Amino acid sequence: MSDTEECQNISNRPTAPKIPDGEKVDFDDIQKKRQNKDLMELQGLIDAHFECRKKEEEELIALKERIEKRRAERAEQQRIRAEKDKERQARREEERRIKEESDAKKKAEEDAKKKSAMTSSTYSSHLQRADQKRGGKKETEREKKKKILAARRKQLNIDHLSEDKLKDKITELYDWMRQLESEKFDHMERLKRQKYEVTTLRKRVEELSKL
Asked: Nearest 5°: phi and psi at 25?
């Protein structure tokens, strides 16, 4: 080691404080000041420690509060979700019930329409057959009527008759007209009765078709 380096090392070494000449050194005071300084440093460390603990406790309390708040929020979210699921399920059940009722009603209406159509078809067929039959009967009755009228419509041939025979002929024709009026009245009454029976039958068929 060179002299320069050795001088530098010597200059870096701590040196004891110089005591002024002629003054008395109070070691008790120095010791007391040193103790006070150490106590102040220790108190500072203790205060810093407690301050750090206080901050940690505050952070821990804040963390617990956040955890509780988050837990309460999750519970509220779960409750809301459960209520929505319940409402959704109830709405689906209601929609399903309404759809089933609508389908049942629609099916019942379709069945009623089919039944009514079948009844109407049967009723129409029945009326058609009845009309055809009645038309045939009318045609037959009309032909019979023509034949009867043709048979009854006789020429008078009264040119060669005497007065007495003309009177007898008039009496005969008068009686014949009275007989025709009586037969006409009977036919009209029979026609009224037949119309009444047909109307009653139609009403019964309509009531049965409604049922």
From this structure: -85, 125
DSSP string for the chain: --HHHHHHHHHHS--PPPPPTTPPP-HHHHHHHHHHHHHHHHHHHHHHHHHHHHHHHHHHHHHHHHHHHHHHHHHHHHHHHHHHHHHHHHHHHHHHHHHHHHHHHHHHHHHHHHHHHHHHHHHHHHHHHHHHHHHHHHHHHHHHHHHHHHHH------TT--HHHHHHHHHHHHHHHHHHHHHHHHHHHHHHHHHHHHHHHHHHHHHHHH-
- Domain ranges in the chain are 26-115, 158-210
Query: Can you read off the two tokens belonging to residue 1?
Result: 């080691």
* Nearest one of 203, 183, 179, 177 to 191, comparing CA atoms: 183
Rounded to whole angstroms, what are the CA distances from 162 to 156, 159, 173, 176?
13, 9, 16, 21
Q: What is the pLDDT of residues 119-174, one digit of tens each?
A: 666 656 666 666 666 555 555 777 877 777 777 666 667 777 788 888 888 888 88
Is the pTM higher than 0.70? The answer reads: no
At residue 36, what is the residue type?
A: N
